Amino acid sequence: MGRYPHEATFTVMDLDCLVITTEPEELFPAIDEVIETVNTLAATASLDLHGSEVSRLGRLARFAEITVPASDTLIDYLRAALWAADLTGGLVDPTVGSLASDDTSRGWERIVLGDGVVTLPRGCVLDLGATAPARAADLLVRRLAEEHRGGFLVSIGGDMAVAGDHPDEGWRIPVTSPTGKMLQLVSTTRAALARSASASTDGAPAVVDPRTGDAADRVWTQVTVAACTALEANAWATASVVLGERAPDWLTHFGVSARLERRTGTTRFTKGWPHPRLVAA
């Protein structure tokens, strides 16, 4: 962002990360914790790593329903994903990676979490790419505020959360396009922000509509949402990309503040989102 003296941007496991602290001596400890968190996130939830926990479960569930031990971290990420699925009526579905299989392999309602174990239907492939980084950002920023001095802003893969003290003017956060162009500067003291983008020139993967198994219609190039947590913001934003034209009315119905960018270059705002000037979110 380049607006704060105690700020660092870096990439870990292909995820863009941002850390800002109000206290200069807390920046490097916070960076270390972000790196550790993202490495754990990847080892647990990355489908790109053959040895990750979700990859291993996908191989085990390929030919039969399974009930197997799972780490506390994976259980937490799965619980967060199921919460997001319930919140959005299944529009954000952690079994969307199973859509190439028969219908019995998919459906978030068929995942069962137990005490240290998880049950997956035959053929289920877990895709936590939408929700796990947001959940990780929420948990980490809270821990940093509890264990260190001052305030913190943490962004993992574009999912941004804040906790602790904040600058007098609030955290000033640029809303940028997928190509990096700044569209708006907003200020927040407590709200988390998340962005979901459709497949675009920056290489963002296509958001899949779990109702059809196809890529969502590219009505919106991206949707940015403010909510109480990065997980919640991410869930609303991802679901909005899936819903297309219906998204603004749907978000309004649930009282969600959002900015939606059309492919044509126009922008829609829902109630509560500041129009393009600096206003607290």
UniProtKB/TrEMBL annotation:
Database matches in SUPFAM superfamilies: ApbE-like (SSF143631)
Keyword Signal part of the UniProt annotation: no
Keywords assigned by UniProt, alphabetized: FAD, Flavoprotein, Magnesium, Metal-binding, Transferase
A Pfam family the protein falls into: ApbE
EC nos: 2.7.1.180
Enzyme class name: transferase
Keyword Flavoprotein included in the entry's annotation: yes
GO molecular function: metal ion binding; transferase activity
InterPro entries: ApbE, ApbE-like_sf
Reactions performed catalytically: L-threonyl-[protein] + FAD = FMN-L-threonyl-[protein] + AMP + H(+)
Known cofactor(s): Mg(2+)
PANTHER family assigned: FAD:PROTEIN FMN TRANSFERASE, THIAMINE BIOSYNTHESIS LIPOPROTEIN APBE
Entry protein name: FAD:protein FMN transferase
Organism this protein belongs to: Tessaracoccus aquimaris
